[in-house]
Amino acid sequence: MSYISSVMEEVVKRNPNEPEFHQAVKEVLESLAPVMEKHPEFEKLGLLERLVEPERQIMFRVPWVDDNGKVQVNRGFRVQYNSAIGPYKGGLRFHPSVYLGIIKFLGFEQTFKNSLTGLPIGGAKGGSDFDPKGKSDEEVMRFCQSFMTELYRHIGPDTDVPAGDIGVGGREIGYLYGQYKKIRNAFEGVLTGKGPAWGGSLARTEATGYGLCYFVDEMIKAKGKSFKDATVVISGSGNVAVYATQKVQELGGKVVALSDSNGYIYDPNGINFDTVKRIKEVERKRIKEYVTAHPQAEYTEGSTGIWGIKCDIALPCATQNELDESSAQKLVDNGCWAVGEGANMPSTPEAIEVFLKNKVLFAPAKAANAGGVATSALEMSQNSMRYAWTFEEVDGKLKGIMADIYKKASAAAKEYGHEDNLVVGANIAGFLKVATAMLNQGII
Ligand code: NDP
Ligand 1 pocket, 166 CB below 6 A? Predict the structure, then answer.
């Protein structure tokens, strides 16, 4: 049995009932076959066995009192995956589907993504099965305070710097930061995604969505194409989807659809960005509200139907495994020629197969959505300097970082015999830097 197969078999055995984690590890390990051929010494050094095992996994009780005076108990997680190239860094996700396997898959992915940014950040992820939907601001605050009352002892500006993810935006980061500051009596850069008035970086809110578009733009430009006049379908209507919508429009594309976990909207005239921003960020309502303001648009129940809409470019920006083989086939049959993953692992392995087989230009999440964490690392730099860059400075750096990630991923794909396959290229380029650092630092 090959080294890779035996490590994979062990991962499945030692981490039962964690299919998302198995899926993420399998994709990376399979991409690394040509690297293992070139570096047989990695096996003796147990590099892959070390890489698939998180450095530290923390699980804790999060008790809080709801508005009716009833005590609720959630489960909190922080997986500090790999610190070979910098302090642990990765978001917190608050969603009922969260369990250890989801956090481990995200932490594993984050390790390679952070490496690709070229910035000194290790990989981590955390969160809780708490559902912020339908909760009052006070309930969210009490939950965040309780969550941080345990988390604070495991994190620090040079140790582990969490950020937002699904269900964790500016409001939650604010409550988490307030509690950390109170317990530690220290105003330090321990979280990113903070408000600009209290240490946050300008352009962090926009960074993942904008970065996705910058990456896809690089990828399609290399093949002589552009966003100009392209019809674009974007899933989700959260932080990533909203700012991807804005950037696609700035680049001359037409976004015709957005979704949430209940359904999707289709506006043949092009989505009105201001309406979406108001509904999602100010009113915190469902995406179906859009049709009230724009009666020419249609709302359809069921979120996966969105992939049946004809488009040139598809940007899945909602959640893992939201785009399966049959949805991928529908996109291809309708003439879609590029896909950029804004969410983490939104396409199933079978869907990716369909895209690659049909020569769809495919931008994998690890590379394409790295703009958020890259800008978080820029926020850490600004906090360390006690200085703030302008929006334009941060956005300019983000653009440069995304172009650089594209170059690295496409060069690695070519060097290892998989030209134009950015899945393989991103995995190899991300891996090599972490592997070198791990080897240099000994068996730890
Ligand atoms: P948000 O919580 O802001 O938004 C998530 C959106 O996805 C919501 O519109 C949500 O709808 C929708 N959604 C969730 N589950 C489903 C589902 N099963 N089907 C359809 N829609 C669904 O999260 P973000 O925008 O921050 O994150 C989106 C994705 O991007 C995640 O995979 C995240 O890991 C990834 N990402 C985020 C980064 C960031 O900086 N924020 C950085 C890198 C990656 P509903 O309201 O109904 O739940």
Answer: yes
Structure tokens at 128: 């809780």
pTM recorded for the entire structure: 0.97
SS3 state of residue 230: coil
What is the tens place of the pLDDT at every residue in 222-239?
A: 999 999 999 999 999 999
Tens of pLDDT, residue by residue over 314-351, are: 999 999 999 999 999 999 999 999 999 999 999 999 99
Ligand 1 atom closest to Cα of residue 240: 25
205 Cα: distance to centroid of ligand 1 (angstroms)? 14
Annotation marks residue 125 as catalytic: yes
Ligand 1 touching residue 319 (CB < 6 A): yes
> CA end-to-end span of the chain, whole Å?
27
The residue whose CA is least distant from atom 31 of ligand 1 is: 343
Give dist(CA 260, CA 319) in Å, integer. Answer: 10
CA distance 375 to 203: 8
Q: How far apart are CA 266 and CA 198, in angstroms?
A: 38
Ligand 1: which atom is nearest the Cα of residue 262?
Answer: 47
State the Rg of the chain over Cα.
Answer: 21
Q: Which of 89, 113, 125, 366 is catalytic?
A: 125
Mean of pLDDT over the chain? 98
344, 365 contact by CB (below 8 A): yes
Is the separation of the CB atoms in 111 and 81 below 8 Å? yes
C-beta of 259 in contact with ligand 1 (< 6 A): yes
Packing angle between helix 204-221 and helix 371-385, nearest 10 degrees?
130
Distances (CA, A) of 201 to 66, 258, 286, 355: 32, 27, 28, 36
Evaluate: CB of 206 within 6 angstroms of ligand 1.
Answer: no
Q: Is 165 close to ligand 1, i.e. is its CB under 6 Å away?
A: yes
